[in-house]
# Entry
Amino acid sequence: MAEEALPVLVERLQDLCLERGRSVAAAESCTGGLIASLITDRPGSSVYFVGGVVAYSNAVKQALLGVPPGQMHGAVSAQVARSMAVGVRVRLGADLAVAVTGVAGPGGGSAAKPVGLTYVACADAETTEVRRFVWNGDRAANKAATARAALELLIDWCRRPVSAGTAASGADEGSPSP
Amino acid sequence: MAEEALPVLVERLQDLCLERGRSVAAAESCTGGLIASLITDRPGSSVYFVGGVVAYSNAVKQALLGVPPGQMHGAVSAQVARSMAVGVRVRLGADLAVAVTGVAGPGGGSAAKPVGLTYVACADAETTEVRRFVWNGDRAANKAATARAALELLIDWCRRPVSAGTAASGADEGSPSP
# Structure
């Protein structure tokens, strides 16, 4: 199946959020604002998108998103992605939040955390979910792939019943959802 | 003179910041993350770009950037742009910050504040400057024009001597710099 263009995913997300009255926030590390920019390319996005934080430095992840200092030795991890999603949702007062952290490249990779390793997390008031990816593109392609994964995760969440408190996959390397 | 491509401006900004050891933060309303995304498209940007806030709702402008509630009746104003720049610089601990607020369109315009009206502010520890524009493009063109104006303002500031405490134009509708 051919991949849908990013604006098509943005349109779907906006339609779902407006239909269901859900607000959205974003916390971005490796995408550097691309997710928020794609969302706000669409007129009417201000009705459901409250805003986001571009947390490029670890200090910003801690100060603006409340990521615990103890997690920052591994800024690209499922735990940090989860903490970023929970933090931005609460601080910006949104129903739903997405967060991404990864190694966009070309620098910054290691054997344990190669270029392309990316975590995408989603949080609402009751539960969280983290998905793990390893992209193999260049910096621009990895940013776009992460933005796509974030939009797809948000769309999946918006399609779930609002009252479902047990919808999380708990894919966070085996640790339970908070 | 032909306009330079946005990635060329980003390259120039990065070279200047690395050369002069300056860090940068951004607070974006009408650009919705585009400035941060353009900056972080370039490898090595994490050395000087600490991050940003996408303040799409007025609540985020107040909660994350410290914009005074009394200013929020006119979220598109020189005062709000200035408060956003000062707020994001302090909260993210950057040497220099840029902020933008405007009416991207197609909706949201009025006789007093037409579609395209945009304020771009810059702040360092000592001074601030605000520039006013009225773009006449569509939503995408207005976002790109605002991002260009923000990058050009940052580049102008980076070229000034670091010790200059009187460099602001004070173009904020006659009010003095804080």
Q: What stands out?
A: Residues 164-178 of chain A have pLDDT under 50 and may be disordered. The beta strands of chain A are 24-28, 49-55, 96-102, 117-123, 128-134. Helices of chain A lie at 6-20, 34-40, 58-65, 78-92, 139-159. The interface with chain B takes residues 26, 28, 31-37, 39-41, 43-46, 49-57, 59-60, 63-64, 91-93, 104-108, 139-140, 143 of chain A (CB under 8 Å).
